[in-house]
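Structure tokens please, single chain.
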Amino acid sequence: MDKLTPANTFKRLRNTYRLVVMNDDTYEEVITFRLSRLSVYIGLSTIFVLLVGLTIALIAFSPLKYYIPGYGTKESRTALQLLKIRTDSLEQEIRYKEQYINGVKKVLSGNITPAQLDTVPLTEPKTEQSNY
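Here you go.
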């Protein structure tokens, strides 16, 4: 048995074969193809790449892309982004309100200690005096 070497494998890819399509009733040759394994591999690979390319182009450049889950129209994506921004700002506003209400509750109940008072020293910006 022949060993599989690169030269032997390449020779087998280059061997030519004949594919004959015959009429079953009259045994007349309808068409004849001379093929090699390499030409069959190249042909099938080319057909596969073309079909994948056409499928991707069909989905990308037609309205079929809107049937893909997670993909939407441009208007719906911008509306979703606006809703996300509004939700984030509302959540932040709720946190601020809760902090304010908790602070008011502490003041009204008298549970505030002097260490908790807001006594942040403020520094006034220096204004330049003009000399006339």
